[in-house]
Amino acid sequence: MSASQPGAQPPPHPPAGVSMRDLLASCVAADAVSKPPREPEPHAPKPAREERAAA
Questions:
Q1: What letters, b where the CB count within 10 A reaches 16 and e where it falls short, cover 26-53?
Q2: pLDDT digits (tens, 9 = 90+) for 22-45
Q3: Cα(6)–Cα(2) distance, rounded to whole angstroms?
């Protein structure tokens, strides 16, 4: 019989591998670097603002 208390649970082991947060972050990073950069949006002419006189 072991020297530990009867019925005592062994300490929990830390989970092996990678945390879900790190896994998701690596997926986002891989997705970001695997796509070509976006084309810049064409500059549409802004509508002229009408200056209104203060009343």
A1: eeeeeeeeeeeeeeeeeeeeeeeeeeee
A2: 999 999 999 999 988 888 888 876
A3: 8
